[in-house]
């Protein structure tokens, strides 16, 4: 699978970082999923069988960008996005992607580590971060992933040459 | 490398296993660091983030300021803002013992209080003519002696420290007894031993400090208190000890007074305060919430708190270069890290005492207690006052500078 080019990804990530505080400041902004996580999911629709070089580089870049506008440690972002990637690789191998529930599970599981690490960071900084927005964000990411992700192979739908579409 | 298949087991390739192992170990390390951060690694990562943050955070701040309505300005000035030195003035008034012939009192700020270890770290040393074994007091209370003196700092061993032996005078209504106390450190109140002449002590007797050989005799005229006598354990089983419940004046966490025969040019040492002007950059943290502010200091330094018109608005939780992330907090959110000043009664109250003294109609102004890089005596405001950060406030970042490193000769 081909990933978007870095010369596209990095400016998008920078733009997203600049916009993130303004987005959060909008009414209902705290219910929106983490923009850096969404970008990361969008740039790697299917991590199975993929070389890890580019995703790891992007995890590094996104961690630095997120920490440039937030007090959260870049380690929390690196760990959160890294675990999101690892969980997706495991789950997408195990689950049948044609099912809505399976795709929801993959998306929600990918969002969960970052929310947990953010909670821990908030705890370390004596910030009482409510679990409700975090839970809603996990559900929204799961729903978005279930709706927006194109399965890598639909069962029973093959092209004339016999290959998966 | 293809997987080796030994019926009925399928052993994956070594390359695959090593990749899984390396990825797992890497994730474990990152997760561990995120949950239990090592300050050294955090500062190392901060160096990579710093140049990016110095460009992106202001850009982002401008955009979000344009997108959001400005915060309402505070309608009135806060009462505590103008008297940020009230605590320090009261400490000086309460803590300075009377002048004695042949002795001078050196006023030294406390840099760090470690009551559990039985130590105080002072923000002055040989540079302020301090010397080992000098007596340390606060008002009418005996605190201990200088245990170690370095060039720019010194350590006081409190009389409650483990194994510290202090001469005591147990005062009863009609008579007095000599005794020796042995500090127990974390284990509890100091034990009372060798009561002379032999007597059965009683609870509530007052224990005063008794000088040892070589101590300046005028000090005995001060009647320096240690605490009150109490019994610990079960006397019916014969397993009871006499202890002194130490009295710890809240003001002694701010400054102490050292008795000296020979002094330098100055008799008052000031804490090494660091302050710099600051400008607001971001009005929220996109991950942690709306109670966060990002400000940019005129210089990078040990910023610990953000001040608005002299009043503490919040604690700095993260620093990246000249940028500081501050969580705004009400005065009462400082809890054990705050002290209250009762100007009418001329008392410095700990957080617990202050809470007990509060009533809905009157509260006492709170000040920072100091420690962990936060200077002591900065005004927090009255309990319940919301920290507001409008555009008209004079913002400053403040902190305590670490003492210069010792020069090895």
Please provide a written account of the structure.
The complex is a heterodimer of chains A (165) and B (409). With 165 residues, chain A is an all-alpha fold. Chain A has one domain. Helices cover 67% and strands 0% of the residues of chain A. In chain A, helix 4 runs antiparallel to helix 5 and helix 5 runs antiparallel to helix 6. With 409 residues, chain B is an alpha+beta fold. Helices cover 17% and strands 35% of the residues of chain B. Chain B is globular. In chain B, 38% of the residues are buried. About 5% of the residues of chain B have low confidence.
Offer a few descriptive terms:
heterodimer; A: 165 residues; mainly alpha; 67% helix; B: 409 residues; alpha+beta; Thrombin, subunit H; 2 domains; 6-stranded antiparallel β-barrel; 6-stranded antiparallel sheet; 4 helices
Which whole number gives the mean pLDDT of chain B? 81
Largest interface between protein chains, with number of residues from each side: A-B, 44 and 45 residues
Number of discrete domains of chain A: 1
Measured by DSSP, the beta-strand proportion of chain B falls in 25-35%
Task: List the domain count of chain B as a whole number.
Answer: 2
Intertermini distance of chain B: 61 Å
* Low-pLDDT ranges of chain B: 5-9, 69-84
Structural class of chain A: mainly alpha
**Which regions of chain A have little confidence, pLDDT < 50, spanning 5+ residues?**
153-165
Number of strands of chain A: 0
Oligomer: heterodimer
Largest sheet of chain B: 6 strands, antiparallel, barrel
User: Strand share of the residues of chain A?
Assistant: under 5%
Q: How much helix is in the residues of chain B?
A: 10-25%
Lateral strand order in the biggest sheet of chain B: 3-4-7-6-5-14
Shape of chain A: globular
């Amino acid at each position: 699978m081909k990933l978007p080019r870095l010369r596209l990804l990095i400016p998008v990530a920078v733009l997203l970082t600049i916009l993130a505080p303004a987005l959060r400041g909008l009414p209902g902004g705290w219910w929106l999923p983490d923009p850096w996580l969404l970008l990361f999911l969008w740039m790697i629709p299917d991590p199975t069988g993929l070389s890890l070089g580019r995703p790891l580089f992007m995890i590094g870049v996104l961690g630095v960008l997120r920490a440039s506008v937030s007090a959260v440690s870049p380690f929390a972002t690196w760990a959160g996005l890294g675990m999101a990637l690892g969980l997706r690789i495991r789950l997408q191998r195990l689950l049948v992607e044609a099912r809505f529930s399976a795709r929801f599970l993959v998306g929600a599981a990918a969002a969960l580590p970052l929310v947990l690490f953010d909670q821990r960071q908030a705890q370390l900084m004596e910030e009482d971060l409510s679990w409700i927005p975090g839970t809603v964000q996990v559900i929204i990411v799961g729903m978005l992933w279930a709706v927006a992700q194109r399965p890598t192979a639909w069962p029973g739908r093959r092209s004339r040459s016999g290959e998966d579409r | 490398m293809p997987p080796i298949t030994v019926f009925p087991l399928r052993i994956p390739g070594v390359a695959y296993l090593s990749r899984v192992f390396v990825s797992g170990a890497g994730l474990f390390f990152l997760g561990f660091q995120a949950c239990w951060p090592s300050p050294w690694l955090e500062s190392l990562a901060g160096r990579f983030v710093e140049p990016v943050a110095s460009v992106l955070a202001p850009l982002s701040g401008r955009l979000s300021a344009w997108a959001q309505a400005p915060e309402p300005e505070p309608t009135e000035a806060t009462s505590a803002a103008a008297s940020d030195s009230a605590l320090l003035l009261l400490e000086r008034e309460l803590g300075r013992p009377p002048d004695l012939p042949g002795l001078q009192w050196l006023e030294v700020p406390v840099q760090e209080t470690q009551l559990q270890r039985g130590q105080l770290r002072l923000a002055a040393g040989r540079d302020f003519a301090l010397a080992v074994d000098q007596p340390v007091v606060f008002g009418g209370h005996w605190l201990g002696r200088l245990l170690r003196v370095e060039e720019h700092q010194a350590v006081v061993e409190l009389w409650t420290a483990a194994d510290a032996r202090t001469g005591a005078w147990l005062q009863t209504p009609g008579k007095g007894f000599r005794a020796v106390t042995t500090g127990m450190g974390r284990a509890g109140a100091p034990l009372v031993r060798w009561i002379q002449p032999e007597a059965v002590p009683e609870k509530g007797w007052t224990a005063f400090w008794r000088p040892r050989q070589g101590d300046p005799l005028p000090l005995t005229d001060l009647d320096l208190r240690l605490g009150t006598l109490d019994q610990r354990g079960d006397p019916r089983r014969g397993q009871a000890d006499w202890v002194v419940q130490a009295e710890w004046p809240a003001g002694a966490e701010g400054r102490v007074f050292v008795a000296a025969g020979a002094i330098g040019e100055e008799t008052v040492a000031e804490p090494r305060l660091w302050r710099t002007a600051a400008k607001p950059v971001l009005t929220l943290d996109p991950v942690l919430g709306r109670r966060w502010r990002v400000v940019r200091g005129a210089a990078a330094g040990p910023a610990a708190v953000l001040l608005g018109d002299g009043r503490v608005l919040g604690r700095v939780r993260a620093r990246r270069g000249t940028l500081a992330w501050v969580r705004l907090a009400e005065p009462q959110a400082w809890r054990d890290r705050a002290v209250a000043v009762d100007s009418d009664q001329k008392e410095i109250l700990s957080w617990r005492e202050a809470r007990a003294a509060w009533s809905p109609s009157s509260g006492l102004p709170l000040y920072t207690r100091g420690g962990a890089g936060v200077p002591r005596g900065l005004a927090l405001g009255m309990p319940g006052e919301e920290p507001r950060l409008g555009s008209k406030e004079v913002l400053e970042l403040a902190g305590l500078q670490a003492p210069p490193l010792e020069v090895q000769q």
